[in-house]
Amino acid sequence: MERKDKIDTFGAVSLVAFGIVLAVNQVVVKLGNGGFQPVFMAGLRSVGAVIVLIAWMRLRGIPFDFRKGTLGPGLLLGALFAQEFVALFWALDHTSVSHASLLFYTMPVILSIAAHFLLPGERLTSLRVLGLVLAMGGVALVLGGHRGGQATLAGDLAALSGAFGWAGIALVLRLSRLSTVRPEMQLFWQLSVSAVILLAVSPMFGPFLRDPGMWHFMGLAYQILAVASFGFLFWVFLISIYPASGVASFAFLTPVLSVTLGWLLLGEEMGWNVIGAMVLVALGIVLINRKKRPA
């Protein structure tokens, strides 16, 4: 397909669908933790996804590209990917889907602050600062709303640390030689290195198996196929034909959908503080990604 200068109906529907895929994944991980230890499950997901990715690359005739200057950034990228999902999967084992989603998807807020100092041409404007204030206010509202029950402060902080790992990945991709390789190679580094790290550290988090059943294995297959491999590749396809800023603007839908699914499917409580935080974080992300109109 030829490149487009704006999001059309197909793009909007596709991005909403991708947001639903990611939102469902939050619930799948939460349920999957009943069958697998979270970090071990994350490692299995990376192993399965890298196998799918290699098969895809061979089918498409995409060569492996280990050009000079990519080894160090590639290892760092994989380590950050592992940290991100150790934090997220552990968080989903210790807090609610609603809280984990809201905090994990503050990544654009964290990245905006880092980009102001590290990336040329991405300085904070007054509108973006307002977005940061609103989004961070939402984070504070979530962290301050604990009254026991399903959510814990430790789980929320783990989800927030996962957001920092995700932001770190974006910075490595922008600031290193990996910015010159294909997205498939960027994903290969993330999956292959993280698979080794995640499986190596997983014994520190308890027994590998809890009480796995058919639904847990189906959930793992969903994570491998729909999220970690083909989901990402579909997103790469969308960003190759639509403006990157337009694609990114749909990211705020995921925490909103995750909260709704957590309430509908898991019966999680959705108090007013969570609803208020959801609104603040979503509005903040929209403002941060909004471009200044030309004079």
TrEMBL record:
UniProt subcellular location: Membrane
Family, as annotated: Belongs to the EamA transporter family.
PANTHER family reported for this sequence: EAMA DOMAIN-CONTAINING PROTEIN, INNER MEMBRANE TRANSPORTER
Organism encoding this protein: Thalassobius vesicularis
A Pfam family it matches: EamA
Ranges of residues in domain EamA: 10-143, 154-289
CC terms in the record's Gene Ontology section: membrane
Protein known as: DMT family transporter
